[in-house]
Amino acid sequence: MFLLVSESARIDNIGMREIVFDTETTGLSPAGGDRMVEIGCVEIVNRVETGRHFHAYFNPDRSMPSEAEAVHGLSTIFLSDKPRFPELVEALLDFIADSPLVAHNAGFDFGFLNHELGLCGRPSVCTSRMVDTLSLARSRHPGAKHSLDALCMRFGIDRSQRIKHGALLDAQLLAQVYVELTGGRQIGLGLVADMQSLDVAASASSVKVRERREPRPHAPLVEELNRHRAFIEKLVNPLWSRFA
User: Fold this and answer.
1) Where are the domains of the chain?
2) What pTM, to 2 d.p., does this model score?
3) Which fold would CATH assign to domain 2-197?
4) CB distance 24 to 1 below 8 Å
5) Close Cβ partners of 89 (under 8 Å, ≥ 6 residues apart)
6) Helix axes 133-140, 106-119, angle to 10 degrees
7) Strands (DSSP E) along the chain, which ranges?
8) What is the pLDDT of residue 91?
9) What is the C-alpha to C-alpha distance for residues 128 and 2, in angstroms, rounded to an integer?
C-alpha cells in the first residue's frame, strides 16, 4: 500500500518544514538480515501538521518472525503482495526532501532507513538531520517513562486507536508529542505570515462559532420556597441563629 495525500500542497519559503516518521521492521538488526516493512511520514510546518503524509508497506522478501508480528500485526502473507522498497524509494525521497527527520529512538529508524537505501544503491540520509524525541523527552523529564504511550498519557494525547504498533498512526501520535516537547501547541501561532497559503483546510476540523445566547432566568418556584422554609424550621439551633 502506498499513500501520499495532497501532493498539490507545496510548502515554499514560508516556514520550518519537518518530517515526523516511524518504521516497522522484521526485527531489531538490519545487519542481521532484518528488513523494514512499513514506513509512515507526517509533514509539519512550524510545528503544525499540514495533512500531507507518506505511508507504505514493503515486501521484505523474507518471513516475518512471530515476535515481530505480535508487535505490529504484519504477517508474511499480508506483505507478500506489497511493493519492494526500491519501487517506492523515489516517492519517499521526494516526500522527505532535505527536511529534518523526527523519530522516537531515531537511531533505530535511521538505521533501517539507511540500510534499505544502501541495498538499492542510494546514499544514506545524514544523521545531522536526525531529531530524536526520546532524547528530548529524557532531557525534559528525567526519570520518567519515555515510551510513546507514556508520553501520550503525559500530554493528554488520545492513543485509543493504538492497539498494535503502526508506522503511520505512531508518526501521527509522535507529531503531537513532538509539538509538546518543543513548546506546546501554541508555538506555531503567529510564526507563519500567511497561514492561508498552507493547504491544511482539508485536514483541519471546521471551527463553528456559536451565537451568543441570552442567560436564562433562574428563580425558585413558590412550592420550592415553601419546602425550603419548612425544612429550615425543623433545624435545631442552626449556626446562623447565633449571629442574629
Assistant:
1) 2-197
2) 0.71
3) Nucleotidyltransferase; domain 5 (3.30.420)
4) no
5) 116, 117, 120, 122
6) 170
7) 2-4, 17-25, 36-45, 48-57, 101-103, 130-132
8) 98
9) 27
CB-based contact 35:76 (threshold 8 Å): no
pLDDT value for 11: 46
Comparing 2-16, 18-32, 83-97, 172-186, the range with the smallest average pLDDT is 2-16
Query: Which three cell numbers mark 13?
Result: 519559503
pLDDT at 244 (0 to 100):
61
> Quick one: cell of 214?
441570552
Task: Name the active-site residue from 104, 141, 165, 228.
Answer: 165
Cell 493504538, located at residue: 162
Per-residue DSSP letters for 196-216? GGS--TTTSPPPPPPPP-PPP
Q: Establish whether 53 is a catalytic residue.
A: no
Q: Starting at the edge strand that comes first in sequence, how are the strands of the sheet with 2-4 ordered?
A: 2-4, 48-57, 36-45, 17-25, 101-103, 130-132
Contact 133, 104 (CB under 8 A): yes
SS3 48: strand
Q: At residue 203, does pLDDT exceed 60? A: no
**pLDDT of 5:** 42
Residue 141 φ/ψ region, left for φ over 0, alpha for ψ in the -120 to 50 degree band, beta for the rest: beta
Find all residues with CB under 8 Å of 6, minimum gap 6, and list them.
Answer: 50, 51, 52, 199, 202, 203
Q: Is residue 234 classed as helix, strand or coil in its secondary structure?
A: coil
